[in-house]
Amino acid sequence: MQTNDQSVLIFDIGKTHVKVTLLDESGARLYQNRTSNRVKKTKPYDSYDIDHTWSWFLSELSGLTPQFNISSISIATHGAAAALINPDTEDLLLPIMDYEFEAYPDNIPDYKSLRPAFDVTGSPDFPAGLNLGRQLNWQSQLLSESVREKAALLMYPQYWAWRLTGKLGAEITSLGCHTDLWDIRTNCPSALLKKLGLENSLPPLMNAWEPLGPVRTEIADQVGLNSECHVYPGVHDSNAGYIPILKSPKESRPTVVSSGTWSVIMDSQADVSTLDPARDMLVNIDAEGSPLATARYMGGREFGLICERLNTDIATTFSDEDVHEIIESKTLILPSFCAETGPYPNASGRIIFENEKFEINGKAAATIYSALMVNDILKRLNPNSRNDILIEGSFAANVVLCRLLANLNPNRKVRIQNRGNGVTEGCFLITRWNAKAQNQINSEVSPYPSDSFRDYARLWEDKLQT
Q1: What fold is seen in the domain 6-233?
Q2: CATH architecture of 237-466
Q3: How far apart are the first and last CA of the chain?
Q4: Do the Cβ atoms of 212 and 233 come closer than 8 Å?
Q5: How confident is the model over 335-352, as a mean pLDDT?
Q6: Is pTM, for the whole model, over 0.85?
């Protein structure tokens, strides 16, 4: 029997996993489930398996509605993904490209000559399809001029919101997420869309906290949703993790480490003019439309690759002894394990044993490496900051990692996001935008008890210079 209490459903499409989370009116979790975010081998490029994601999502809804009164749906997705649709026929014009696909053809216009400069968009020239504009440069060539003229361009969160509501909208966090499509100087679309013949493709820009519309009647009937269940436009996932911070005064906002497949570090007080695009530093746009200094690396992906290289199951445990053994033996894990990303895009990941090679715990090694990489990025982003460091996402569950980071930052407090996942909380707050801000109670972690870890970190940094 369905309860009368209203609940909020969060639909979170990350690069690795797709998650559904149900929250009560206070934001407490009632239910969560996930599936893999599948990629299909399609022509002419690899694409996301949206049919699997949609079918799974509807199945989840059907299983929840007999018990829960879902009043709203809030969406977050990874960046660098978009759909071109015909809004009249509701046809998807082309598969939604996987941003990791690299085999771009030679017979398309040179994208480097088309894309705006870094100081215009805050978007570095990323590999593969991490600049959405590079995907669109190819896709626009696959469509006739008449089809392009009628096409609507939906960022990935808004694509799913459209499927649920039939309403078109655009939202700034996804538009401003290393797409090359947003001019951070004028706060409007860049000239790139016109060069691609897509200047009329963007729907009206909406605030993330403005409901896009109710769920389509046929979908509501199919899965048992209330016909008044409203869907929000959706946001970029890392920016969702930053939304709880927007409720704080700007001068006291912490630096946020949002972690998943990517580790994204965001600092509202860092100077965007000092960002180095060659070091995977960029300008994101927060949900209120302000530029946000950002730097990143594929933290979750690299964590798994280090465990794999050291023959360690990522689900295994490790002890303080495992950590001390790596530090005291001066065994160094050096970047990068994902090519062309992070602050060392041209380096090849390697493990250096100071003396005789011996077996080490891969998860402990990956934990130490992750703390050092996040610390490296923090220093590049805002070396003089004394504000708190707030860790959310998968890294927040690794207390040793957080404590190692605290060891390296004695003048800053390192805190763990308490209410589960920052992306989930940000999506929830979107549905409560005008409500009185709740005090954020996040746990401070104590520094890891190792007198030699800072010496180890300096050795790690020195080795990167050789």
Answers
A1: Nucleotidyltransferase; domain 5 (3.30.420)
A2: 2-Layer Sandwich (3.30)
A3: 66
A4: yes
A5: 95
A6: yes
